[in-house]
């Protein structure tokens, strides 16, 4: 694909970044992203909240603040009650408000397979962009949401998850990464991305590429307890196997147990993965405590072996 060169494109389609970035001036750049998907929960309002929170995550992962949003809707009014769509949109609108962004409009397509999401535009100072690469040896690796959401969603479809666990899962998926992003800005993070379909191992390996490795602290990795039990009973999403086939070679250590399924579990609206200089950890911790954001220090970046995730 031939794309005309434009020196104002700071982050383009190469490099697997979370969003594109376009320089408007020396002080200001636009950050743009789009994300939408099919329902992953039964309640349309919750689905709207989760899809919107997920779309905002890519803006937060770039170190940017969301400014405006547009709805993207696939819905067949002849096949479904229009109330379902209203609830989805209401869920999205509540998240847009919480993110202090403005809803400017949207577009809908008549489609029997329901889909919803947002295109989001944010702002960032061109020098404060946080990319997925840039972590340095000795940086701490922070994660801001528990893992196992893909396994739990699969378990819910099989009727294997308690109402209490399902409720917690929905709140985690619907939570914005805004406060984690604020702590990350305060601490001047070296790199960040959000954990979605490729799981922890996949998105973490995007942060490593050929420049650093990471030593995980397996006992510090947060996850839903129920997910490990479900994985042991074989309730795992197909994407988990795809991720393991693709990223398994990056993971070094005693893999194969049920716990390692968690590393490859595809996440929906997952947390941020953030690389913070160890000297700035206090600043991160203070900011996170002040704005009450949960986080776990799950590893440390290392110089060698590059591109590898050590358990
Ligand atoms: Co992303
Ligand atoms: Co995305």
Description:
It is a single chain. With 311 residues, this protein is α+β, with helices and mostly antiparallel strands. It folds into 2 domains: 9-128, 60s Ribosomal Protein L30, Chain: A (2-Layer Sandwich), CATH 3.30.1330; 140-310, Phosphoribosyl-aminoimidazole Synthetase, Chain A, domain 2 (Alpha-Beta Complex). Helix content is 35%, strand content 23%. It has helices spanning 44-61, 82-98, 149-157, 163-174, 178-186, 199-208, 225-232, 238-247, 258-264, 281-290, and strands spanning 9-11, 20-23, 29-37, 65-74, 102-109, 115-124, 140-143, 191-194, 213-216, 251-252, 272-276, 296-302, 309-310. Strands 8-11-7-12-9-13-10 form a 7-stranded mixed beta sheet. Strands 1-2-3-6-4-5 form a 6-stranded mixed beta sheet, covered by helices on one side. β4, α2 and β5 (102-109) form a beta-alpha-beta unit. α6 runs parallel beside α8 (238-247) and α7 packs across α9 (258-264). It is globular, with a radius of gyration of 19 Å. It starts with 8 loop residues before the first strand and ends with a strand. The structure holds cobalt (II) ion (CO) (2 copies). One cobalt (II) ion binds at residues 18, 58, 61, 193-194, 196.
Describe the secondary structure blueprint for this structure.
Layout (H helix, E strand, L loop, with lengths): L8 E3 L8 E4 L5 E9 L6 H18 L3 E10 L7 H17 L3 E8 L5 E10 L15 E4 L5 H9 L5 H12 L3 H9 L4 E4 L4 H10 L4 E4 L8 H8 L5 H10 L3 E2 L5 H7 L7 E5 L4 H10 L5 E7 L6 E2 L1
Parallel strand pairs: 4-5, 9-13, 10-13
Antiparallel strand pairs: 1-2, 2-3, 3-6, 4-6, 7-11, 7-12, 8-11, 9-12
Helix pairs in contact: 1-2, 3-7, 5-10, 6-8, 7-9
The structure holds cobalt (II) ion (2 copies).
The site of one cobalt (II) ion has 6 residues, from helix 1 and strand 8.
């Amino acid at each position: 694909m031939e794309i005309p060169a434009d020196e104002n494109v700071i982050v383009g389609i190469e490099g697997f970044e979370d969003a594109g970035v376009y320089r408007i001036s020396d002080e200001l750049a636009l950050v743009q992203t789009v994300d939408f998907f099919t329902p992953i929960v039964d309640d349309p309002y919750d689905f709207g909240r989760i899809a919107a929170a997920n779309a905002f995550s890519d803006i937060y992962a770039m170190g940017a603040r969301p400014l405006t949003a547009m709805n993207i809707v696939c819905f067949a009014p002849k096949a479904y009650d229009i109330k379902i769509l209203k609830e989805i949109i209401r869920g999205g609108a509540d998240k847009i408000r919480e993110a202090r962004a403005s809803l400017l409009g949207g577009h809908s397509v008549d489609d029997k397979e329901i889909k919803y999401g947002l295109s989001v535009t944010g702002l960032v100072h061109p020098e404060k962009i946080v990319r997925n690469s840039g972590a340095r040896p000795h940086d701490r690796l922070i994660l801001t949401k528990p893992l196992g959401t893909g396994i739990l969603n699969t378990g819910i479809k099989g009727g294997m998850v308690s109402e209490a666990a399902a409720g917690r899962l929905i709140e985690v998926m619907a939570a914005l990464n805004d406060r984690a992003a604020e702590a990350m800005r305060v601490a001047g993070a070296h790199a960040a991305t959000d954990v979605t379909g490729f799981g922890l191992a996949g998105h973490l390996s995007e942060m490593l590429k050929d420049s650093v490795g990471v030593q995980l602290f397996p006992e510090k990795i947060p996850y839903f307890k129920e997910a490990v039990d479900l994985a042991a009973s074989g309730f795992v999403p197909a994407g988990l196997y795809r991720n393991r086939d693709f990223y398994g070679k990056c993971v070094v250590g005693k893999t194969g147990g049920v716990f390692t399924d968690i590393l490859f579990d595809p996440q929906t609206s997952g947390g941020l993965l953030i690389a913070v200089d160890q000297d700035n950890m206090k600043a991160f911790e203070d900011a996170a405590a002040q704005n009450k954001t949960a986080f776990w220090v799950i590893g440390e970046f290392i110089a060698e072996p590059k591109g590898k995730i050590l358990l």
